[in-house]
Design brief:
41% helix; binds adenosine-5'-triphosphate; 273 residues; alpha/beta; binds magnesium ion; single chain; 10 strands; six-stranded mixed sheet; four-stranded antiparallel sheet
């Protein structure tokens, strides 16, 4: 039995988190805590609610039931103004990178700094941008626009922006998706580096089992709105659960296949109309 984390080691806690959209239950009573300085990876099939889950951690979505805590403070019921100070302590790397296209790399990185702090001194801002870009190997790209960067470079700039305020927690939504294996591995290394050098608590959503095993202290697999399995990479790989094995091997289940055939037939019959 591992040592149970002390309450103050837990940076983020989800208690019975349930989210419904209309009649669809996406998250069904998820209870999870995230320990200081550790990297938790959340995996699961497309549409299982991974993005919805991490959006609750910065309260971009509000639970239908259950609670979200940041350092023992309940945050899911705070108003937007009260959430500001919580959000400055969390960096968020959106699915797809999401840099502001009309801003240069420099402007992208100082955006959260200007929004959430009183720092306006040009020298200080230059220094923040330089150190954050250097960390991701992109110093010198300050005046580039996102359109002239590769996919991997954009993710690195997005990571530099996410750490601009020295957050305690970073939430990464699919940081390696769409990158070739080498560029994906650069991102893995950067996530490891933020953990080692900055002591950041990371919560990473991914489809990529290689990335999950490399960076995760713990992997949590979601399925049908619930936690199917939780453990280290070995636990996941050795699991006999068919859903887990199918996920690792990238195989579709018979039920999913059947439901897809139904929808293919619906499409065909629609096309005939
Ligand atoms: N704002 C919303 N309104 C209604 N339904 C939503 C909303 N956001 C997400 N959903 C639904 O919730 C479910 C989970 O979505 P989510 O984006 O969390 O999936 P995911 O696990 O991140 O998938 P992927 O791996 O493809 O990114 C989906 O069925 C989606 O359609
Ligand atoms: Mg998603």
């Amino acid at each position: 039995m591992g040592k149970k984390p002390e309450a103050n080691d837990r940076v983020v806690v989800l208690k019975g988190l349930t989210k419904r959209f209309g009649n669809t239950v996406v998250l069904d009573g998820i209870t999870l805590s995230f320990e200081k300085g550790k990297t938790t990876v959340i995996i699961g099939p497309s549409g299982c609610g991974k993005t919805v889950l991490i959006k609750h951690i910065i309260v971009l979505l509000r639970p239908s039931a259950g609670e979200v805590y940041f350092h023992n403070q309940r945050i899911d019921n705070l108003n937007e103004k009260e959430l500001e100070s919580v959000r400055t302590q969390m960096g968020f790397l959106f699915q797809g990178g999401a840099l502001f296209d009309s801003f240069t790399v420099y402007e992208n990185i100082i955006f959260p700094v200007k929004q959430h702090t009183d720092i306006h001194d040009k020298k200080k801002l230059d220094e923040i941008v330089r150190t954050k870009l250097a960390m991701v190997g992109m110093d010198g790209f300050q005046d580039y626009y996102p359109a002239s960067l590769s996919g991997g470079q954009k993710k690195r700039v997005a990571l530099a922006r996410a750490v601009a305020l020295n957050p305690e927690v970073i939430l990464y939504d699919e940081p390696t998706t769409g990158l070739d294996p080498i560029r994906a591995d650069i991102i893995n290394e950067l996530i490891l580096k933020t953990q080692k050098e900055l002591g950041i608590t990371s919560i990473v959503v991914t489809h990529d089992m290689n990335s999950a095993s490399k960076i995760g202290d713990r992997i949590v697999m979601l399925h049908n709105g619930k936690i199917l399995l939780e453990g280290d990479a070995e636990t996941i790989k050795n699991s006999k659960l068919p859903e887990v094995q199918r996920f690792i091997k990238g195989e579709i289940s018979d039920t999913d296949l059947q439901s897809m055939q139904i929808s293919f037939e619906d499409i065909k019959s629609d096309e005939k109309k």
